[in-house]
Target: M1 family metallopeptidase
Amino acid sequence: MLAVSPRLLRRAAACALAGVVACEPGAAPERRLPDPAEPLRPPDVRGPIPAGIKLADYVLDASLDADKHTVSGTARITWRNHTRAPVDSLVLHLYMNGFRAEDTAWMAEARGAHRGARQDKGEGKWGYIDVRAARLLAHGPAVDFKAPEQRDAAATPLALVEGADPSLGTLALPRPVGPDEAVTVELDFFTQLPRVFARTGYDGDFHMVGQWYPKLAVRHEGGWQAHVFTLHSEFYADFGDYEVHLDVPEDMVVGASGVLVEERPPEGGRKRLHYRADTVHDFAWAASPDFLEYDDMWRDVRIRQLIPRALAADAQRHLEAQVAALESMDARFGPYPWSTITIVHPPESAGGAQGMEYPTLYTTSDILRLPLPLRLLGIHELLTGEFTTIHEFGHQYFQGLLASDEATQPWLDEGINSFSNTLVLDDWFGGDATIARIGNQRVSTVDMIRVALGSSAELDAVDRPAEAYRDFTGTFGGTVYRKTAAVFHTLRALVGPEKFDRAFRVYCDTWRFRHPTGADLRAVLLRELGPKVRISETGPDGQPVDLDVADFLAQGLETTASVDFTVARIANRRAVGGGGWRRGQDGALALIEPEPEPAGEELADEASEGFALIVREGEFRLPVELEFEFKGGERERLWWDGQARYRVFTFPGRKLAGVAVDPDDKLLLEGERLDDHLRAPGSRKPDGISDPLARFSEAVDLALLGGLGL
Model:
């Protein structure tokens, strides 16, 4: 029972009546720091950048009409052909056209909804990008076109042809671009932003401008990797340098990828801003006259938060989460290479813009504003704003730094990032990595993943293209995010955290500023961990138990097999004795009567035999640790390779009291654990209520956590 003073009760009641926000602390004074001088951290801090990775440089010059919610401008693109074959056309992503009409690939699948937000029904419903002119500026040796005022009088007009889905377009070139040659084109474009409900758009004076310009696809040896924009697909592009010039209303506070290198004095109610981003594969920006600015430093990295006044009280909690993410990921996965990170807090009315990543910039979500009475009851959570901040920053590594193809293998981005996020929480909070707490009941990072797996993760395999997931099945989140995280957490627990972490760091160091595939990740893990990892020197039959790493990854990523073990039966019985007809030394048979069982008494241990039946109900085959508890409290652990459908364990001369499957919770892939523990009959007095209540309580917990959308 809580002892709460009358004064505190009155304050709680006032909060409940007046609203939560009124009882929150007000906005702190703004904190502003100058932009870093360079977009990248110093070479001795960030580490080397591989030569030849910058294949697509951009000069963007654009103007925002904040009343009509349009962006018009030019995109000058220099592309280098690093393949062995000549290329006669350029393929462009026109992502904003995904919102152009009901029958685009994106809208046909989304049906006007995205992560709970719905498309506006009135004016501002649609968005599009219109490339109104294109021209060839240079062909051959690379030419520096960084200054937007430069023009080439001899420019050759080009024609852009939209694809069957308008999110793709093709520019035919007058002659092919040979290997190691470069081409520079310039496009005039006009972008109409939609009222935001999915990542990009506007809400009143707030503008989130993402995927707003014509953007080159990635050229592989086999051709252009150009993906139609679909509901679950995100983005894939080459690294390059960006020089971006923005013309915006004078009162706009702007946050953008990279660093601000120049701001011209306002003129005629407008201002021009010049941003530079180095070694990135995208550029996004946000603008609002209502942003407050809160800047801080982590080592030599500036952390900039742009946040509406109504949410400004939460800036400190987001900062702490951001610092925790930097501390953890910089140490685990290699140095964060850029000199700044910008966190954009969309207003509460623009929830569709929350939770999206771009190079050196991301949008976060609001922290759940719990009424004071609930906080007094010990309810606390990190599931909303703070976890979003950690998750979206994690994308600076997966997929900002290790730029995998999100459309082809989304798990390399979302799934590996989700795995890394739980490691951030573990590093931040240590052994008490609690994501939510109600009184003294807590939900750990492991619980967060396990309870969110659900049956949906058994419908689709992890390693599938984004377009293969249907929105109607609801499998994308459970499979790509949570099951991937569970696969790698389970592997890490089985082989040992230190060994796994060393191997994974090799992957991160090897593929920085590149485009790793799932095969690349598997190859590194197999090389660094070895094809088989010894789990136990002695199994049930005296043979060692090994984990086949390739087989584990194949099952986890390529199949829908589930991990599910159960303790099917435990019993104790009379051990086999010496009674019966036996041949003596003289060769004659003689009857030996068995010793009578004691009446009304339990058999002595030496006359007993305990046995347990462990069944692998799931199709996923992997080693599992078992803990056997014997009468008197003694415990013994054994590893079983889990290959057979079941295994009977017998213990002559010992009485079993209970059995536990996976006692250290290493198999995070196992979502159903209610049948992982069993007590032997007679090991305690059944009261007819404890077991049913315990199982009911656990089932309710799982249902509630599922309702939170974990």
